[in-house]
Amino acid sequence: MLEIKNVKKHYRKEVALDHVSLTIPTGSCFGLVGPNGAGKSTLLKILASIIQDYHGDIQLTKKNDQLKRITGYVPQELCLEQTLSTIDNLYFFGKLYGLSGKELKKRATEVLHDIGLSNRSKDKVMHFSGGMKRRLNIGCALMHNPELIIMDEPTVGIDPQSRRYIFQMIQGLQSKGCTVIYATHYMEEVEQLCDQIAFIDRGKIIETGSIPSLLQKYAIPSVFAKAKNHFPNKIGEFGKITKRKDGHLIKTDTPLEVMEEILTCYKTNPKDLERLELVQPRLEDVFFTLTGSELREGNPSIRPENTIKQEVYQ
Amino acid sequence: MSAMLILEMKKNLQDRGLLFWMVILPIAFIVLAVSIFASGTEEASKQDIILSIIPGYAVMFVFFIMISMVSAFLKDRDLGMTARIASTPLSPKLYLLGKWIPYTLIVFIQIVILIVFGKLVYQVPIEQPIFLVILAIALSFTATGLGLALGLFVQTENMGIAITQVIGLGGAMLGGLWVPLELMPKFIQTIAHFLPQFWAHQAFQDALNGTLIEKDLFLAVLIILAFGFGAFIVAILRYPHFLKQARG
Fold first, then answer.
1. Residue in chain B nearest A83 by alpha carbon
2. DSSP 3-state of B84
3. Domain end: A214, A239, A261, which one?
């Protein structure tokens, strides 16, 4: 459905996006993952038509569709009028997409139901909790029944209940045929929601694929063991051992053999082996393998212009 | 655009600070100025003073709408609303118009209230009401046009307030809104001709008095509107940069 071809974007001399190409299938939930300043938000702003001065192509399979008309954008910020009511906020965004009269009211009622705020429609947003505001922020983007929904870290700063509710909403949207682009750096969210993911770092797409394929390609399984006495040196031959607070983690391509070896070592004194566990690889391991684990705060190379300016004025 | 317009109107109606800036403060200043400058003078000169003070303070306080406009635009920019709206089919021009028109309406109402206050309390004559309405529309357009441009230009609210003070108070002082121009040095009288405040004040005074001829009305309106159109063009040119700075 959505083809992103060779998209390039510079902020002055700094490269924010460097020849980004992606294909996002219709009806999928596509995760865009990367550290802070990787270029996720810049790419989303281009897709949401907020940034228009870029190089490259964004093509829709349905040639006649205007990207703005079929897209619902959920920004990281809460773009709500705090002094107005829930329904007024929904009406406002609905009208911006050309809805009016009965159609507007009907759609607002449906969205209120979907975001779980039907009984708070007349209440002012300023009195809402963070989770309620987040849900309304999403609701505003759904008023015009978009086919493509772009979400930029929509669960920042909310409680687990609201988060779960939002996940259910996203899954519901996907089951209705919507395509969702979901940017985050929370790996567990991606694991739970997305069919396909793209890792982006320093403005470049460094890897794409399904979660199982990426796990198979990059993540190494490990064995966790906790023993009372000295840990057998022999185990070091099987892989890299990292000391943890309460035991040892052995990263290895042959985890079952390692477990077998450890069991053999402790056969005579099984009470000395307190814990032995197979640790399945996780997306977070893939993330660190691909992007490294060093802190990125000191690297302003690909931050958007506004972030740089706002820091100056603070 | 109607969505933007209704939203702004609702927000402004809820803003009590705006009521203070736009109506209560000007009325307080008018009462104070009249009691200081007109007390103890003969009836004829008292009426002349009042006839200068009422339109003078009305014209001066019209420009204070710029503070509210700066604040509204910066809030939109920093809370992500500008970027969010840019992701919708609403064009930048309609976005700016939708934000601008409610303020123009507010300023127009402000001028009407201050003139009617002058009529009811100080028996100021309203001899050419149609001309006054035309002037009020032109002045509302220009003051809010400047507010629009300023809102898109300044980086911080304090900067916006400072520039508004320069335009509002500086323009009032140099435009003869406080002290009759005849009492000012020659060079200030020359400078006054380059300020919208001067043209608005002169035309308002004459229209209240019934001595404004059509040619002078046309000239005054043309000059006042030129500032407004200039400001709107500047705002449109500035908008892409403003959007780049916006969060979200």
1. B11
2. helix
3. A214
